[in-house]
Every structure is written in C-alpha cells, then in structure tokens.
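Narrative summary of target 7.
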Amino acid sequence: MPFLPLRLQPGVDLRRALEAALANQPCEAGFVVSGIGSLGQARLRLAGATDVLELDGALEILTLAGSVAVNGSHLHASLADAQGRVLGGHLGYGCRVRTTAEVLLALLPDWHFSREPDAATGHDELTLHRCQAPAG
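Modeled conformation, tokenized:
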C-alpha cells in the first residue's frame, strides 16, 4: 500500500486539498491515516445534525480520519479551540488551514469508492469496488 505524505499551506481548504491530492494520483480511493495541524476556519456537521457549525479562530486539528475518493469523501475531525475545548464531527468544505496541516494518506490503487443510497441508513454510504486487474 503506497502512502502520500502532505503538508498543506495556510489558506488552503483542507477537504478540497485532500481530494485534489488524490485526484493527482493513479488511484481513486484512499484513507487518511493521520492528520494534525491548525485551522483558522472550520465547518463541522455534528452527530445527528443537519446544519453545519461554523467556527472561526485558532483551532488545533487533534485528529483527522476518513475515506477520500474522487467522487465523495467522508472525513471526521476533532478540533480544539484556544481554551482547549474539543468539538468533533463531519469535516465540511471551507475548513481553512491556519499555519499548516500535515496529513498522511494511504492510497488504495486497487479500489474505487463511491457513495450510494443505503436503504438501512437512509443516507448515501460508502460502496467499495475492487478494480479489475489488467489481463496479461
């Protein structure tokens, strides 16, 4: 399994940068192995909520995990504010790197991830597809 270490610069949208990094690789699926750094803006959807919580100010990324795909990622983060309070949830678009973000992606070249409706949950859920090996 190949790995892709990333260091993201200030102002970059964290989620978009991860999806773009994957799109530049010869694969369509990956997982965040580790992620730390800081954000100046964050957009989190908390458990069971439909609205997005918008946070501004210095935030530390304590954890970052999830699947990254060319057609739909699912990322979770836990963030600490300047007083040490921690919030976590689904990471949305619009999370801007403050000073740096250091992320390690595991690339899965034999897999394709998609999001498809799941009758049991009522949500679009991860569907795993193993890519066919080339004949030869």
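The longest strand covers residues 29-45.
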